[in-house]
Amino acid sequence: MRILLVCQANTARSVMAQLMLERLLRERGADGRVTVRSAGVGRWARDRMLASHDARLALREEGIHLAEEGFHSTALAAHPELLAEADLVVTMTADQKQVVAALASGRPPRIATLRELAGEEGDIADPAGQGEDVFRACRDEIKRCLLKAVERLAPCR
User: Fold this and answer.
1) So which residues are the catalytic ones?
2) Is the pLDDT of residue 6 over 90?
3) Structurally, how many domains does the chain consist of?
4) Is it the case that residue 156 has pLDDT exceeding 60?
5) Domain CATH number, residue 85
């Protein structure tokens, strides 16, 4: 299975979601069966931007140490192959879900918001420019949703 996590710029929410999901999959013994990537769909998304400092700090508190140069963003519009290869695209908002559907050519992959995968409604708001406490809350919300959804994404062996 190939999962693509999407947010606006691929510098905060989708980065945190990717790294936390990869860890959850490793813990479940599913890291070889599931590939996780991330990308941004906003007009300002571009390749090779660095992960947000606040996102890196929030991840560090979870024991995930991401060096400044340890991650570079991907602009989904510049990489249509990511959509073509994805079995599931997970967005942070309903608006992003619509953007991904519009970008998908031919038969789009399954697209859901992270909250939908967790059996909930609503969006995961962008913490950009709002400080460490908002990033922590966003990280915790993403983690909670991932924990609720991981069994559907990669059942235990």
Assistant:
1) 7, 13, 126
2) yes
3) 1
4) no
5) 3.40.50.2300
